[in-house]
Amino acid sequence: MGAERRMAERKEVDAIVVSDITALTSYNVVARTGAIIDASTRGFLLHIQREDLIPPELRSNLSLEDLVGQQLVLFLPQMNLDLDGTVTRAIHKGKGLFQIAVDFSDEVPEYWRECLIDLLPAPGEMEE
């Protein structure tokens, strides 16, 4: 699995705003909003600010390790699209910023993931 991860080409993206980040096991909304900052056909990196976390136990903690292994679903308003996947890593980057790595669910076809990555804007691509 390690080699497969390295082979998936990563694409730095222009922070794609997402909303309603929800844990599927409990159907609890984890965060109001966040941003996808990097993506590949395997998954994506998500940045969430502490003030956007909803559960008090997450907001008052410097760790989101409880999310690792959980399936999340989130909404991309600009594309009117839901994404889901499993949290593989959650770290506090400092100053209230959390970085969460999410692998796409196995049910998501490879060709669909490739199309999604192609459609996500690279940094500066959406500027006028």
What's the number of extended β-strand segments? 6
Strand content: over 45%
**Averaged pLDDT:** 88
Detail the poorly predicted runs.
1-7
Helix content: 10-25%
Explain this structure to me?
This protein has 128 residues and is of the alpha+beta class. The protein has three helices and six strands; from the N terminus they run αβββαβββα. The chain has a six-stranded antiparallel β-barrel. Strand 1 (11-23) and strand 2 (28-39) form a beta hairpin. The longest helix is centred in the last third of the chain and has 10 residues, at 110-119. The N and C termini lie far apart (40 Å). 22% of the residues are buried. The model is unreliable at 1-7 (pLDDT under 50).
Structure described in brief:
The protein has three helices and six strands. It has 128 residues and is α+β, with helices and mostly antiparallel strands.
Question: Key features?
Answer:
single chain; 128 residues; alpha+beta; 6-stranded antiparallel beta barrel; 3 helices; disordered N terminus
Topology:
Layout: H1 2-7, E1 11-23, E2 28-39, E3 43-49, H2 56-59, E4 71-76, E5 81-94, E6 97-104, H3 110-119
Antiparallel strand pairs: 1-2, 1-4, 2-3, 3-6, 4-5, 5-6
